């Protein structure tokens, strides 16, 4: 039987072993591990790519969000609006920055719905945190209008959207700051944890540098209560190496999304993500391929029986549905979505034949009359 894991961690990096060994030798040979040249080099390449002034490598995207929110000056009692269809890391970062997360609904493309943002604004709202989910960028024109109208900051959780564009502009570069994750399964992943914060604002960048490294300035003087959240030099070097071919990764992912679209468009039991060329304002990078499916749970079992790994994002619940977190919010669109959403495999280990096999399996499920 064909075996297609949802994400094959071994295969994802097997083609990079020689590069990685070379980087390891070099790094160990120089004994240069913390905040060395490779970090700055990777930051520079990313900043050039995104067309943004400052990139600051940090330990992971959760820290990136906490630091960005703290540097933005949030205070206790401040409310920050984020979608509930996100990793718990987004609202957790808001909590750890001392503010209160307010979770809102998503739209048909599974991303934060601007109307839902409007409905959640109170006198205490300070910021909006759109989540650029599944490699797609939210409707940033409308979100910017809302932010302007109510005097709110925008800080993006663009963990899943490196390289994604909206009207020619990269995810992560719209608001006061954007944040990225280099977790191994992310579109640009390292061999452990990694993250980055990007901003055009000099004062934000200054503070973020301080927070990243124990609050110490260039002279070693401690000027605020900081954290230890440095991107490892060795991970930065790995990332920089892979970043050289990053555009080919995006092209391949868009090609795979096109293949899914072509082979599944006429299957009436599923709703597909927007097709790669369906919107000239957007370049989606397909970090995930999240479909909606009738009889989702049975489809998932059916696919599993055929050797195909799938996942429901966030362990099967939107954040407000985790009872221990104490939300009493009702979000109808998100709740309905979580009975239907399913991620098909979408990664660089897949062949065209794998995608055909997956599509045949999905089609087979609905043809046999469920
Ligand atoms: C992966 C992810 C995060 C967390 O990133 P880490 O680097 O693991 O901290 C946050 N938000 C979203 C949307 C993610 O997908």
Short descriptors:
binds pyridoxal-5'-phosphate, 39% helix, alpha/beta, 370 residues, 3-stranded antiparallel beta sheet, 7-stranded mixed beta sheet
Structural class by sheet pairing and helices: alpha/beta
Oligomer: single chain
Overall helicity: 25-40%
Widest beta sheet: strand line-up: 1-9-8-5-4-2-3
The distinct ligands, each listed once, are: pyridoxal-5'-phosphate
Please, how many helices? 13
Unreliable segments (pLDDT under 50, ≥5 consecutive)?
none
What string, H for helix and E for strand, traces the elements in order? HHHEHEHEHEHEEEEEHHHEEEHHEH
Report how far the terminal alpha carbons are from each other.
Answer: 22 Å
Task: Provide the gyration radius in Å.
Answer: 21 Å
Summarize model confidence as the mean pLDDT.
97
Query: How would you sum up the global shape?
Result: globular
Strand content: 5-15%
The description of the largest β-sheet is:
7 strands, mixed
Q: Tally the beta strands.
A: 13
Question: What's the arrangement of secondary structure elements?
Answer:
Layout: H1 9-14, H2 17-30, H3 37-50, E1 54-58, H4 61-71, E2 79-83, H5 89-96, E3 100-104, H6 114-120, E4 125-128, H7 140-150, E5 153-157, E6 165-166, E7 169-170, E8 177-181, E9 195-199, H8 202-212, H9 233-243, H10 246-264, E10 270-271, E11 282-283, E12 289-293, H11 296-305, H12 332-337, E13 341-344, H13 352-367
Parallel strand pairs: 2-3, 2-4, 4-5, 5-8
Antiparallel strand pairs: 1-9, 6-7, 6-11, 8-9, 10-12, 12-13
Helix pairs in contact: 2-9, 3-9, 4-5, 10-13
The structure holds pyridoxal-5'-phosphate.
């Amino acid at each position: 039987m064909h075996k297609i894991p949802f994400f094959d961690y071994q295969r994802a990096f097997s083609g990079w072993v020689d590069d990685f060994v070379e980087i390891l030798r070099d790094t160990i040979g120089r004994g240069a591990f913390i905040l060395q040249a490779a970090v700055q080099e990777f930051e520079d390449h990313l900043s050039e790519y995104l067309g943004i002034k400052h990139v600051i490598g940090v330990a992971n995207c959760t820290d990136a969000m906490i630091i960005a929110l703290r540097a933005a000056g949030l205070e206790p009692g401040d409310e920050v609006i984020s979608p509930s269809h996100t990793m718990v890391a987004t609202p957790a970062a808001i909590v750890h920055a001392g503010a209160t997360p307010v979770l809102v609904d998503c739209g048909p493309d599974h991303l934060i719905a601007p109307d839902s943002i409007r409905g959640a604004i109170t006198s205490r709202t300070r910021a909006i945190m759109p989540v650029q989910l599944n490699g797609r960028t939210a409707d940033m024109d409308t979100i910017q209008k809302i932010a302007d109208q109510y005097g709110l900051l925008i800080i993006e959780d663009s963990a899943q959207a490196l390289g994604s564009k909206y009207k020619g502009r990269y995810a992560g570069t719209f608001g006061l700051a954007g944040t990225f994750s280099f977790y191994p399964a992310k579109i640009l992943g390292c061999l452990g944890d990694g993250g980055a914060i990007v901003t055009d604002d000099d004062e934000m960048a200054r503070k973020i540098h301080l927070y990243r490294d124990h609050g110490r300035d260039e002279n070693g003087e401690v000027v605020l209560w900081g954290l230890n959240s440095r991107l490892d030099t060795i991970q930065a070097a790995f990332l920089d190496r892979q970043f050289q071919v990053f555009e080919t990764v995006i092209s391949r992912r868009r090609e795979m999304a096109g293949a899914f679209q072509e082979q599944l468009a006429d299957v009436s039991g599923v709703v597909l993500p927007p097709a790669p060329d369906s919107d000239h304002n957007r370049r989606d990078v397909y970090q995930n391929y999240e479909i909606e499916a009738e009889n989702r749970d049975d489809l998932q079992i059916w696919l599993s029986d055929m050797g195909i790994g799938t996942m429901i994002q966030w362990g099967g619940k939107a954040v407000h549905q985790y009872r221990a977190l104490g939300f009493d919010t009702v979000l109808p669109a998100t709740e309905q979505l979580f009975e239907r959403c399913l991620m098909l495999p979408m990664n660089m280990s897949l062949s065209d034949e794998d995608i055909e096999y997956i599509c045949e399996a999905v089609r087979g499920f609905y043809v046999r009359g469920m």
